[in-house]
Amino acid sequence: MKWYAISGSWRITNDEVKRDVERTVEKIILAGDGIITGGALCVDYFATNAVLRKGDPRRQLKLYLPIKLENFCKYFFKRAERGVITREQAEMVTSQWREVARICKDCISDDWGYNEANIESYYERNIKIVEDCDILYAFQINDSKGTQDAIDKAKELGKEIHVKKYYIGAN
Fold it and tell me: Which CATH number fits domain 3-29+53-166: 2.60.120, 4.10.950, 3.40.50, 2.160.20?
């Protein structure tokens, strides 16, 4: 069984990105392989959702969060209060994490030694995702730095990499 990291931008998306992520993940899980993703909005959310709908999350999903699940849920609701994301987005993604935890608590890795969600904990999570995958699929929107970080780390480790770039204007 191979593990495919799915990495991508969380700030902005469109239907094309969603379709591409879902198609890629569906091919992976139908082949009997698994995905590792970071639990963010947009690309990570689409990938996780595809496994929940069409795969066997107990054996085909690894969700790597930068901090403990409950702390990450609180963090997302604080981000909504600050207007960085909407309350609906916070509810949607945290509900997804809790569903994964209900189905398979062991599918979630969330203890990297960080107590706060910040650039360091996110990039540490990216290191773990890339180290544990066989192949990286990156869906990079507007040259996002976080996705580029995952690509760079995968290159350093000699991983097979597939990058799809998108340029989406601001709404």
Answer: 3.40.50
